[in-house]
Design a protein that fits this description.
The complex is a heterodimer of chains A (112) and B (113). With 112 residues, chain A is mostly beta strands. Chain A is built from no helices and eleven strands. Chain B has strands at residues 3-5, 10-14, 19-21, 24-26, 32-38, 44-50, 56-58, 64-68, 73-78, 87-94, 102-103, 107-112. Classes of the chains: A mainly beta (112), B mainly beta (113).
Chain lengths: 112, 113
């Protein structure tokens, strides 16, 4: 079974803090994705990566950056957290092409 | 670019009744289609997928979906709903040559006793 893990289930940070969300997958997938999920807005793609050190902007990259130094690990970085970044963050991985994505359990981030 | 519409934000079904969740997509060529389920506070779990071939696909937990090209639809069905099926359901579409999926906004299923 594919397993995608995220470093925290719940996280509370203060405005202006630098925040790191970590995601690890164990199936040697080339693609990894970061989404945020908000009520009524569904899933919105922040960034994705199709290889180590390669990244592409998604629909809402502003205020976020990513890092992929190893194939199995994809990090989402909030350089200076703001209250409007309070959300559920979901990581996913997949093989190349639009094959099915496997999701982690999510990190619920609250910025106060 | 692809797009996905799930017309129903909420649906309430009695336990034991049949279920159909609607999904319409927009894409010029043959799409790759997926249904996911999300229980409260959890990530998304794949229910089923369609890439090609038989237009009626079977998934986990007793779900099935039918691809209808003429109607640009991929509706999810279950003959008899259980209380544990209460969750949010997402339809997604992908395309050959693209790594990303486009998700619908989801349909929340409520199951009444």
């Amino acid at each position: 079974d594919v397993k995608v893990t995220q470093s925290s289930r719940y996280l509370v940070k203060r405005t202006g803090e630098k925040v790191f969300l970590e995601c690890v997958q164990d199936m040697d997938h080339e693609n990894m994705f970061w989404y945020r999920q908000d009520p009524g807005l569904g899933l919105r793609l922040i960034y994705f990566s199709y290889d180590v050190k390669m990244k592409e902007k998604g629909d809402i990259p502003e205020g976020y950056s990513v890092s992929r130094e190893k194939k199995e690990r994809f990090s989402l970085i909030l350089e200076s957290a703001s209250t409007n970044q309070t959300s559920m963050y979901l990581c996913a991985s997949s093989l190349p092409e639009p094959y099915e994505q496997y999701f982690g359990p999510g990190t619920r981030l609250t910025v106060t | 670019a692809q797009s996905v519409t799930q017309p129903d934000i909420h649906i309430t079904v009695s336990e034991g009744a049949s279920l159909e969740l609607r999904c319409n997509y927009s894409y010029g060529a043959t799409p790759y289609l997926f249904w996911y389920v999300q229980s409260p506070g959890q990530g998304l779990q794949l229910l089923l997928k369609y890439f090609s071939g038989d237009t009626l696909v079977q998934g986990i937990k007793g779900f099935e979906a039918e691809f209808k090209r003429s109607q640009s639809s991929f509706n999810l069905r279950k003959p008899s709903v259980h209380w544990s099926d209460a969750a949010e359901y997402f339809c997604a579409v992908g395309a050959r040559g693209y790594s990303t999926l486009t998700f619908g906004k989801g349909t929340m299923l409520l199951v009444s006793p």
